Fold this sequence. Notes:
62% helix
Amino acid sequence: MRQEVCEPATRRLAGGVLDGILCVGAALRAAVTRFGTPRMAVDEADKFLIAAVQRGDQQAWREVIERYQGRLMSFARRMLAERSEAEDVVQETFLGLMRSLPTYDPSRSLETYLFAIVRNKLHDYLRRRQKGQRQSLEQLELDDAPEAWVDTDTPSRYVAQQEMVAAQRAALVECLRTWVEQCTQQRRFQDLIVIEMLVVLGLRNKEVAPDLGLTEPAVAGIKFRVLEQWRKLAGSTAEAHEWTEVDLAADSTVGRIWREEGISCLKRSTLGRYLLGVLDEDWNAYIDFHVQQADCDRCHANLEDLRSEDERDEAAREQLRERCFASSVGFLSRPPE
């Protein structure tokens, strides 16, 4: 049945084909079309590439840089006026990735990981610039441990706690991603928009309702239904999260992880089709909301990268690619003899 929504939040809401062929050769290079591949295929390709990089494959490292430098550059330019500053941050980002590879978790999306690094690098850069300090390539601040743990816990207990937290987070992320995928497959865009308004924009029921042409009880009903869906997806494992209405807020753990992991971020192939104008009205309305009203910086960066890809100065692109490669290739492991 057609969903009832209205202006302004959903403006036009009315009711694995591989886009590029992945070729993994001796150098593990991937040739994909302009708009990329579906997320699952991309994640698998990234895993192959990172495994090759960890073995010391320089060509694979070039491919990682080539694949992600454009969208990272677009992301950095949203916060920095000077192109040279953004290039420095992107260079630091790839160096940060290289240095963190020994502890990199392959189950985590490489794109999510890189956007986490570049976001931290940007914050560091802006903070240092305010203080008049020079940049440093030595720091990578992804997950700062609570000081109380460092001060009071033994190393073994701290590691055990970290592993437990990591397992719980991974289970929570998997549950949320599965739910988002189900929403898009079943075209439950209204449910998805309501949850984003709550956990991303930090709105309350009475603020969500008028934007979507709903009553407050209707919003509460959607929240109740979504929490039940999350409980079923989480199951009864040791890592299962205890879902409550408190989770449906921007300052909750779910809200923080939703933003950090880009839970509802769109596939690059979907964004490419959006730019081509081949998606239907429901999809276009949801993407408009997600990018413009929810202000997803990651999807903004991907869209900007896709829009400018044909116009980008290839010489400048190649120069940045070589800078990133030259500053980080020295950290590659030597390939086995």
